[in-house]
Amino acid sequence: MNKFKKIIACFIILFSVITHAENTKLIAMQIAHKESATQVTFVRNQLDTQRIFSLSRPKRLVIDFPRTRFTTSIKTISLTNTLIKNIRYGYPKSGTLRVVLDINANSQFKILSPSYNTKLIIAIYSSATQTTLIKPSAPPLRPIVVVIDPGHGGKDPGALGFLGTKEKNVTLAIAKQLVDLLNQQPRVRALLTRRGDYFVPLRDRLKLARKANANLFIAVHADSYFNTEAGGASVYALSQHGATSEAARWLARRDNYSELGGVDLSELTDQSYLLRSVLIDLAQTATITDSLRLGTIMLSKLRTVTTLHYSRVEQAPFMVLKSPDIPSILVETGFLSNTKEERHLRDKNYQTKIAQAIYDGIRIYLQKNSLDHTGT
Ligand SMILES: [Zn+2]
User: Fold this and answer.
1) How far is the CA of 202 from the centre of ligand 1 (A)?
2) Distance, CA 304 to ligand 1 centroid (Å)?
3) Does 121 map to a domain?
């Protein structure tokens, strides 16, 4: 059965032309319901803080957006079969937009969105316990952490070229240049999963990204194929199938992976397996959407320096792409089995061009997400 069938989505985007330029605009609101959880997505045109709290009698969820104008419409949003009874908004304090969601008395909420995002994603779910959760406002200028993962290393050379080029050396050379470029950006902190020629297990690469609170994860590889004519770059995001099996793993091992995109799963010990799986699934689906968006931008930049093996973002269950809440892509920079491309990939100037293209892709993605994101 198509798992998305149960999602009800309304996406409304209207731009205000009269709002003061410095104000943040709330440009879209989306409500989706899946099994036992309702997901509310707010999209702003720029990074800003918010304050979220719940009040009782009647139970309601209150979101205060400072310096923000409401520039979309709530009239066409369907609340049928959701945990929300009513939505309203106003400006109780000058300049502060307050959105109030009337919810069932036994509902709780969790914030699912990454902190740097202009999107605020909240999951509302039923709970037997009635506690009030207050999420402090996220600091708006936390550095954006980008983890670069040079494929293979040490005992694992990766693909081998006819001229003797090893994939592990190509990926490290490109990744190092990429990290240097990224770290010249004032708000970006870029890290490598390995800094030299040594072996790092795939799970450890994911753990490193999680520990660093990564906002993006980019794996760098080089391809190989028995047909030596095959050539060009490609970009992969996680497939839904890979996501589903990973969600099952997270559920089974929640002691090790208790924190998920602001969702503290350990708080949910009294909750059902189904609820936990829905929360993970909602986060993962949002992450794959972001990964595909990043991948599409990446292909448009790679196209300027090389041919493309696949012109669209491919999806596969690669282990290193399986963080449920970190947008992740894998870039295949070219084919080492193609001698012409091998000559390119071992050339420092060409490596610089590839690193620059990946860097441009990341930069544009971050701009679109945090500065002029329109929710489309
Ligand atoms: Zn590889």
Assistant:
1) 12
2) 22
3) yes
Least confident of 41-55, 93-107, 117-131, 318-332: 117-131
3-class DSSP state for residue 229?
coil
Beta bridge partners of 330: 219, 236
Whole-number Å distance, alpha carbon 337 to ligand 1 midpoint, is 12
| Mean residue pLDDT across the chain | 81
Confidence band of 274 (pLDDT split at 50, 70, 90): low
What's the pLDDT band for 373 if we cut at 50, 70, 90?
very low
- Model confidence pLDDT, tens digit, residues 67-80: 899 988 888 888 88
Asked if 281 and 310 sit in the same domain, the reply is yes
Cα of 347 vs centre of ligand 1, distance in Å, is 18
CA of 335 from ligand 1 middle (Å) equals: 10
Look at residue 226 and tell me if it is in a domain: yes
Q: How far is the CA of 293 from the centre of ligand 1 (A)?
A: 22
Same domain for 160 and 106: no
Q: Are residues 113 and 176 in the same domain?
A: no
Q: Ligand 1 mean position to 148 CA, how many Å?
A: 14
Q: What is the ipTM of this complex?
A: 0.99
- Tell me the CATH number at 52: 2.60.40.3500
Burial of 279 (0-12, 13-18, 19+ CB in 10 A): buried
Phi-psi region of 176 (alpha: psi -120 to 50; beta: other; left: phi over 0): alpha
In 183-272, alpha helices (H): 202-211, 240-252
> What is the 91 CA–ligand 1 centroid distance (Å)?
53
